[in-house]
Design brief:
The complex is a heterodimer of chains A (374) and B (257). Chain A is α/β, with parallel strands linked by helices and 374 residues long. Chain A is built from 16 helices and 15 strands. Chain A has a 7-stranded mixed β-sheet, with helices on both faces. Chain A starts with a strand and ends with a helix. Chain B has one domain: 3-Layer(aba) Sandwich (Rossmann fold), CATH 3.40.50. Chains A and B meet through helix 4, helix 5 and strand 9 of A and strand 1, strand 2, helix 4 and helix 6 of B.
Chain lengths: 374, 257
């Protein structure tokens, strides 16, 4: 039976992990995501489903525990917030290199350094541009509601096992901490060890029974082999772009101006375009749900229709680079966003749209400029 | 007597360890790693647990342990093997899980993971090969490098005042209640190797009995890093390493010796 509950984003995520049939969670406290492990420790999923929950001695230990459980084909998750994710990046790079499925959650706070415990989207670069060392990418899901904090857990596991790759849920302190009603999914049964061996015995280290030994490693000292591994990873990322891109278009059909925003910024921007429409401004919102793969083509196409694009992010301007790359200079693109843990209001976003895009000389003369270029 | 009369199966006294692959070892001639690998694989074979054993390889000289050991192995990030092993043991409590780590891996970068896995009393075996140097990266100072010992990063000898004392990780973890068995062995002679094998066997038996963490240190050599012949390295090890890292049991059945 699916249940309707009022929950914090972090709690909804933790409950969703249990219901998704996760085998283990390893974490370490850090604000604003500590409710995830607190909820799990209180809920005792070991009794409910047999799911293992352990508080590690550090974020580093936690991500390496994830690596250990993932090596054996178990469904495993960890969560943290920005400084903690920085610590996990070595392990995340290893997970990508060793081609292991795992779900990592970042409930982002402001940075750099110890920064602030208030919400932020300043880990965009870290999430989609690698973060850790080497040629790898993460499949990145950006929830914009408590409902999506819950729904994306199972989606993330599905993608992680489809590609044998780490998946990141990029949330933030706002969505993690706020309470909303959430429709919880039904409980999924965990795989038995026998079922797991049947499904993943061709790669997972479960004990060498009736087969050759399995080895999990990210090391290839032979350059040709290492290059082949990198090519294999790139193929996965290409396939993700083809098959698993997710985005949402809101009021885009007749839009003259476009806001691009994800996560909590998308929620705020949705209100902003409603305010804009009341003033007679035809504004639309493109919300990337996956940040990698990025909705490049939809943006490229919208750039032929709109006069200007505002990238709204709770940071100093990070995703704007991908917006610009996607639209290939077809229209002016500007950034708006508060930092330091301050959350912009819909009114501020609308004001920024008017000032930076609508009343911008470049936008107003854009069509002329474009024809002169052509 | 014809030699062919002697070479008969009933006269065989030793054969290649069954769980070692045919891959040529990447270790330097004279290095103790090969023997330590053999002993671990002999124990796992003799206990009949090869299909239920999951190994965790470190970063260091033995990073390629999975090339030589014919069992399932996952290779951990530098120092993190005890955390990796923790998760495997927790999610597969019926399996035998062991880490195989060097002194740089276990006693420097992995100190936190080692201490906390020990403190939680994870039901795993840690095999700790201590040769007082970073072998893989070319002979740099390790946490276990002896006072005055020359390495590429202590070219004038390890100076205690500025570089600290060689770390006795084994004594340190022996004091933690979660640790059930702690011993220090060596593998440089047949006699020592036989004792070390017994220790490794006891460690895996402890896993079978779910007794918690067993910690087997093997004091070993690094003739390449120490810049000695294999034989000189073994003599130097006996004269210098053993006085600081004395061989023998430190904790048995949960009780300090």
């Amino acid at each position: 039976m699916s249940e309707l509950k009022l929950m914090k984003g972090n709690e909804a995520l933790a409950e969703a992990a249990i219901r998704a049939g996760a085998d283990a969670y390893f974490g370490y406290p850090i604000t604003p995501q500590s409710e995830v492990i607190e909820y799990l420790m209180t809920e005792q999923p070991e009794k409910r489903t047999g799911m293992v929950v352990l508080q590690a001695e550090s974020e580093i230990a936690a991500i390496n525990m994830v690596y250990g459980a993932a090596s054996t084909g178990k469904k495993v998750m960890t969560s943290s917030s920005s400084p903690g994710i920085s610590l996990k990046l070595e392990g995340i790079s290893y997970l990508a290199g060793a081609e292991l499925p795992a779900v990592i959650v970042n409930v982002v706070r402001g940075g750099p350094g110890l920064g602030t415990i208030q919400p932020s989207q300043a880990d965009y670069f870290q999430s989609v541009k690698g973060g850790g060392h080497g040629d790898y990418k993460l499949y990145v899901l950006a929830p914009a509601s408590v409902q999506e904090m819950s729904d994306f857990v199972e989606d993330a596991f599905d993608i992680a096992f489809k590609y044998r790759a780490p998946v990141l849920i990029l949330s933030d302190g706002l969505i993690g901490q706020m309470m909303e009603k959430v429709q919880l999914k039904d409980q999924k049964t965990r795989l038995t060890n026998e079922e797991l061996i049947e499904k993943y015995g061709n790669w997972a280290v479960t004990g060498r029974k009736n087969r050759e030994r399995n080895i999990i490693t990210s090391l290839d000292l032979q350059s040709e082999k290492m290059e082949a591994r990198v090519h294999r990873l790139m193929k996965k990322y290409e396939q993700m772009e083809k098959e698993d891109l997710r985005y949402e278009k809101i009021l885009c059909d007749d839009a003259d101006y476009l806001i691009v925003a994800y996560g909590s910024s998308a929620r705020i921007s949705q209100k902003a375009i409603e305010l804009a429409r009341k003033k007679g401004i035809k504004a639309g919102l493109l919300r990337p749900i996956t940040l990698f793969p990025y909705p490049k083509q939809p943006l490229f196409e919208l750039a032929d229709q709109v006069k200007g694009i505002l990238s709204v992010e709770l940071n100093a301007g990070q995703m704007i680079e991908d917006v610009k790359l996607s639209v290939e200079h077809k229209v002016p693109v500007e950034h708006f966003g508060r930092t330091g843990g301050i959350i912009h209001t819909p009114e501020e976003v609308l004001e920024a749209l008017e000032q930076k895009i609508i009343n911008n000389e470049r936008t107003r003369h854009h069509k002329t400029r474009e024809s002169s270029i052509l | 007597m014809n030699v062919l009369d002697i070479i008969k199966p009933e006269n065989q006294v030793f054969c290649k360890t069954k769980l070692m692959t045919d891959t040529a070892l990447s270790y330097c001639p004279g290095c103790g790693h090969g023997t330590a690998h053999n002993l671990a694989m002999e124990v796992i074979d003799e206990m009949g647990i090869s299909e239920d054993t999951i190994g965790v390889a470190p970063v260091g000289c033995s990073v390629l342990a999975y090339d030589f050991m014919n069992i399932d192995i996952t290779q951990a990030a530098h120092g993190r093997a005890p955390a990796v092993a923790t998760a495997i043991a927790r999610t597969w409590p019926e399996k035998y899980v062991f880490t195989y780590q060097g002194d740089g891996d276990l006693a420097a970068i992995g100190t936190a993971e080692t201490i906390h896995a020990c403190n939680r009393g994870e039901n795993i075996v840690i095999i700790f090969v201590n040769n007082g140097i970073y072998g893989m990266t070319g002979g740099q100072m390790a946490p276990t490098t002896l006072e005055g010992m020359v390495s590429s990063t202590s070219p004038y000898g390890r100076e205690i005042k500025s570089m600290g004392s060689p770390l006795k990780m084994t004594e340190l973890v022996a004091n933690l209640p979660g640790v059930y068995y702690v011993t220090r062995q060596s593998v440089h002679t047949h006699k020592h190797a036989r004792k070390a094998k017994k220790a490794i066997q006891k460690a895996f038996e402890n896993t079978r009995l779910k007794k918690g963490l067993s910690f087997v240190e093997i004091v070993s050599n690094c003739n390449s890093g120490w810049k000695m012949t294999p034989n000189d390295a073994n003599i130097w090890m006996e004269e210098h390493m053993f006085p600081y890292f004395p061989l023998g049991d430190i904790k048995v059945d949960g009780k300090l010796k």
